[in-house]
Amino acid sequence: MFALDLTGRAAIVTAGSRGIGAASAVALARAGCDVCVNYRADAAAAEAVAGAVRAEGRRALVVQADVADSAAVTAMVSQAQETFGRLDIIVSNAGAGTKVPMHEIADEEYRRVFDINVKGFVALARAALPAMRAAKSGRIIAISSVVGRSGKAFMSPSPTYAGAKAALIGYVRGLAREVGGLGITVNAVCPGWVDWGSKHAAAPAEVRASALSQIPLGRTGTAEDIANAVVFLASDQASYLTGVSLDVNGGLYMA
Questions:
Q1: Which of 116, 226, 230, 248 is most buried, judged by most C-beta within 10 A?
Q2: Measured distance CA(197)–CA(116) in Å, rounded
Q3: Fold (topology level) of 10-247
């Protein structure tokens, strides 16, 4: 049986208390990984995810940190390294959107979106790289979006959100070139329409119907679909993939 084995490795998943982050944390644990579950506000949800990680026989660490706060991210990375004795994988999943059109967006809202989506990735990668460089091994994974590739989606996100997700892809490509010679891979996952919790519960029926009509596989995605891609990119089987933006969208967008 073909298996993705991450036994003995350690990971950090930001925004790991729900949705794609929670599914990724559990999937990594199922593959053998110890996991630091990051959260910003919902401690109970993060503890529940940690419980699911431990149920897979792996160690879990729960850390509260706002990824827009670089000092807090650095402290989280240090805590994870101290707890697990190593750090092999980071999954920069924390994200924030906005529906404010370009001609109305204020600097504060612009900064909020870029601080969480882009600065959060930079802070996490920067803090994790010294250990990865010393080990000459590592997996850096950013969760971008179909809108970072196509510039649009069904519910007309702001160009600020699309720009932030596109910036992530640029950072992934640049960093992949910088650290490739050290055995560190850097990749992005670009989800399409993903149903989890209440994220798309309020979408009008006609919007959902339009989405399904444009997805060749005929269904919306799940958090587990994205988590499966995360585990693959974290595995040895993906050791020759770097600088990749992996579209996981049922065929909605094909580059």
A1: 230
A2: 21
A3: Rossmann fold (3.40.50)
